[in-house]
Design a protein that fits this description.
- Pfam families: DUF2063.
- It comes from Ahrensia marina.
- InterPro entries: DUF2063 (IPR018640), DUF2063_N_sf (IPR044922).
- This is Putative DNA-binding domain-containing protein.
- There is one protein chain.
- The chain is mainly alpha-helical and 261 residues long.
- It has two domains: 107 residues, no CATH class; 134 residues, no CATH class.
- Helices cover 44% and strands 10% of the residues.
- It has ten helices and five strands; from the N terminus they run ααααααββαββαααβ.
- The strands form two sheets. A three-stranded antiparallel beta sheet has the order 2-3-4, with helices on both faces. Strands 1-5 form a two-stranded antiparallel sheet.
- Strand 3 and strand 4 form a beta hairpin.
- The N and C termini lie far apart (52 Å).
């Protein structure tokens, strides 16, 4: 390791740890130790990362309040330094962090709300690929329909929660009026962004099983079987129409490896 790289590593190591010693090589214009300058810079880095997390998770912040949120985000920032200079990529595991954050245990749905917010931003920045043209389905031989798989759109996500996280997210992002929610009501949703607008589709049990299986690479036949096992009233035509209408996929595959059309 060169001296310059060593100094850079030493400088960065203390950025997110207020208890870390200041690098001895940090000096001011007059050649004296720049302890105060380093502390100011260290604080600015931490604050900027907390602000980035707050920008990504406004619903979580609204639920717990700004003071609580910033204290929680500070702990996250110290434990999870950024790996990319692109701030919108930061905080991808914030929902998992919240699950393990002891003071947040009384809000067990909070991590799921964070995962919805993260998926929302990821969908917004996902590649602009055209959704599957429904006409392509008519080109598949009927006897092979059960074999086909679908390539998921990069902006498509399935998120499930043991709590009404979908409604809590919408209410705390201003997309839905505030109201009382049944905390014993689990919810699953599919997020898509086939064009420019991100969409959330609330799924019932069989829809969740079917869509989740499809987006994970199961064939149409396999997904339908799993959904029927979950709900004997599963309607394949309805679910297939939903899959096509939401733009959750981009192309048809004969199997998980080969493109058919």
């Amino acid at each position: 390791m060169t001296r310059d790289s060593y100094q850079t590593k030493a400088f960065a190591a203390g950025m997110l740890n207020p208890d870390a010693p200041r690098p001895g090589e940090v000096i001011g214009p007059n050649g004296k130790a720049a302890n105060k300058r380093y502390d100011v810079y260290r604080n600015n880095v931490t604050v900027s990362l907390i602000n980035a997390v707050a920008d990504i998770y406004p619903a979580v912040q609204k639920i717990v309040g700004e003071e609580y949120f910033r204290a929680m985000a500070r702990e996250y920032v110290r434990a999870h330094p950024p790996k990319s200079p692109l701030l919108f990529l930061y905080g991808q595991n914030f929902g998992d962090f919240i699950d393990g954050f002891e003071p947040a245990k009384k809000l067990p749905y909070l991590g799921d709300v964070a995962r919805i917010e993260r998926a929302w931003l990821t969908a917004y920045h996902a590649a602009d690929l055209p959704p599957l043209d429904p006409a392509q389905l008519s080109l598949v031989e009927p006897e092979r329909l059960a074999e086909i798989c679908f390539q998921p759109h990069p902006a498509s996500f399935i998120i499930s929660s043991d709590y009404p996280a979908h409604d809590i997210f919408l209410m705390n992002r201003g997309f839905m009026e505030l109201s009382k929610v049944d905390m014993d009501k689990p919810q699953a949703l599919m997020m898509t962004r086939p064009q420019t607008d991100t969409r959330l589709i609330l799924l019932n049990k069989s829809e969740h099983v079917f869509m989740n299986a499809i987006l994970k690479g199961s064939s149409l036949g396999e997904a339908a079987t799993l959904a029927t096992e979950a709900d004997a009233n599963f309607d394949l035509n309805h679910n297939l129409q939903m899959l096509l209408a939401t733009g959750a996929t981009t192309q048809i595959l004969l199997d998980s490896k080969g493109v058919s059309q």
